[in-house]
Design brief:
Radius of gyration: 36 Å
Number of helices: 9
Strand content: over 45%
Number of strands: 30
Strand order of the largest sheet: 13-14-15-16-17-18-19-20-21-22-23-26-27-28-29-30
Oligomer: single chain
Largest sheet: 16 strands, antiparallel
CATH architecture of the largest domain: Beta Barrel
Distance between the termini: 48 Å
Helix content: 10-25%
Number of domains: 5
CATH topology of the largest domain: Porin
CATH class of the largest domain: Mainly Beta
Shape: extended
Length: 638
Amino acid sequence: MTLRHGSGWARVVASLAWAVAFGAVVPGWAAEPPVPPVDLRALDGADGASVSSDDADLLSAQGWRLEIVAPAPLDALLRNYLDIARFQRESAAPDAIPISRTELRRLVVSAPEQARTLIDAEGYFGARIATRVSDGQDGQPIVVTLSVEPGQLTRVSKVQFVFEGELDARLDDGEPAARSLVDALSAQWSLPVGAVFRQVDWTAAKNEALARLRSDRYPTATWSGTSATVDATDRLARLFMVVDSGPAFSFGDVRIEGLSRQPASAILNTAPFRKGDAYREKDLLDWQERIQKLNLFDSIFVTTDLDPTQASAAPVLVQVREQQLQSATTGIGVSSDTGPRVSADYLHRNLFGLDWQAKARVQLGQNNRLGRLDFTSHPWEGRRRGLLSTQASRTVEDDKAVTLSARARVGLLREGERLERMQYVEFETASVTANAGDKVSDASAYSATAQWIYRDVDSQTLPTRGSTTLLQLTLGRSYSALQEKGFFGRAYARSTWYWPLPAGWYATVRGEAGQVFAREQVSVPDTLLFRAGGDESVRGYAYRSLGVVTDGVVTGGRVMFTSSVEVARPILARLPALWGAVFVDAGDAASSADKLDPRVGYGVGLRYRSPVGPLRLDIAHGQQLQDWRIHFSVGISL
């Protein structure tokens, strides 16, 4: 049951009612079992009198020992944290100083109370504790025995919240948002009825509840008072909490500091809230992350002034430090799919002051040459961005055929927390020429595409839980010098799932499928068709080597599917970033579904989980080829 009230007198009355009802001030509430007295004569001097610190006999490590009789895990807890147990460990050292009988008496006397505190914190409030000291005779050591009968664990029997401040007033007014927040606090309370009552859990539960309230409209909320009443006889704990919510905060005006070359709209248009919206800490963190992804700023800090006098319109401050307006980079790399390569990139973060970014890329490789120019607008309202792109490439396939392609694209990108949507129109042309110089395929097309990317993973670069999905739908009209022109449709989907498994293993499952819909005589550009094989497809087969064979040359097919199952785990505990993996891949591309002939590849690999993504090295066996192939790559893909 949840109570709520606003006046100070109401709080006093409610607190007294709680105390009377649950035994906080009336007799009958069971006390903890008494600790039996300890016979300490074995620690007295030879004359039977207590030994003073001045003339105390010294006991070496062999002169006494501690025995703890308690069920696990309480025995380990007591051995780790009791003072007398710590002295016993230290006395075993070769250079240890012997302990005096007086000091040992003090440790023995204090041990039961220390044990009581430790055991209470674990939820055993009715434990029986006994201490006994045996006589050390005939050269035998003095034995200090601490016995614990913990009894039953204490469990929570009732939880009660009382709300004060503006939250209480909004509850009285029947505000749905206030009721929803209170219901969420109750549902997410981590020490519910029936749970074992431990001090550490009690503290954590209060901290979590207060953090939840502070993160959702009430950032100045505090505890007016909390109490836990424990019945050691019935092993029951009743929890009572009074929360002063303080005022409800709403977002006010936004002030931006640090801009000189970039427009304020690039920041403001990414905000997940408007002026007057309820304060939520998550909105500030999400906004800071969104601004970081713009690649315009070196550092971003978003904060709110939590002055209660400005709660109705709390000002928001965004402090940024801009990156350089222009940058250029060069790179060198190699992969099993495309061979060695060098690349150069140029980026202008606000071209001609038009609030657009421009990026140019040139890549020269053994099997692939590419030139690309992309223009991306700064964010518009609604987290939309404009896209302009051109690209031309030349690829030498594994069978020595050459694929030439070019495209131009105009589109609109909409970014969400998990879902990214893009629509674009495109002109694309592609031709495939055999090694002898004969053209096998030559077609162009105008098309319109809708694309959705959904990401729900625990890490963008090193996922171990969650899923990613890419879906594309395309409609277009093709033109060809070799075959008929006509309309076509295209559908493509790719999903990857990540699961943690027992014993430190992790599973990755991928599925991919695509199909082009058109009359058999209608030609479609090869770059809009499908091939399989390679690092991200079917390992054990060369990159783009699975498709339709025409005159000895592999071209794209109108139907494709691939699948993969991989399990991996860290190899060495001292090097957790290095993983071993085993996998099985299968798939094919063909001119029609009835001609699909799935090719299977399987093998083992290594993964190094670097901060920029996993570096992968695989040795795969292509079952149909009866041959082994090495694959290596870095990063993840949808």
